Amino acid sequence: MNHRLTNLAALALLAVSLAACGHMSNRDQNTAAGAVLGGVAGSVLTGGSTAGTVGGAVVGGVIGDKIDPKKK
Questions:
Q1: CA torsion 65→56→10→28, rounded to 10°?
Q2: Higher pLDDT, 35 or 68
Q3: Cα-only R_g, the chain
Q4: C-alpha dihedral, 56 to 60 to 63 to 68, nearest 10°
Q5: CA 5 to CA 17: how far, in whole Å?
Q6: 8 vs 30: CA distance, rounded Å
Q7: Which segments of 1-72 does DSSP mark as H helices, in order?
Q8: pLDDT at 18
Q9: d(CA 1, CA 51)
Q10: pTM, rounded to two decimals
């Protein structure tokens, strides 16, 4: 039950953090979103382990930083 509350809090934090990204560049937004999603995924996959959460956030942030949507 505790993990469900943690996941819900992480999703709420994701929603709030993405709403606050209006002034950031696309690359910064992708990095932040990747870090949040990676952190949530790392937490879920490792059963709430701190190392898994931090590791997932790092990997997600790096992947998000490398995403470059095609510009029109």
A1: -10
A2: 35
A3: 13
A4: 170
A5: 18
A6: 21
A7: 2-19, 26-45, 50-66
A8: 67
A9: 20
A10: 0.66
- For 7-34, how does the pLDDT look when each residue is reduced to its tens digit (9 = 90+)? 778 777 777 766 766 678 888 888 988 9
Residues 6 or more apart whose CB falls under 8 angstroms from that of 26 comprise: 69
- The residue behind tokens 């999603």 is 37
Residue 54: both structure tokens together: 């931090």
Q: Give the pair of three-digit tokens for residue 33.
A: 């979103």
Judge contact between 54 and 40, C-beta under 8 A: no
**DSSP for 58-70?**
HHHHHHHHH--PP
CB 38 within 8 A of CB 65: no
Find the distance separating the first CA and the last CA of the chain, reported in whole Å: 46
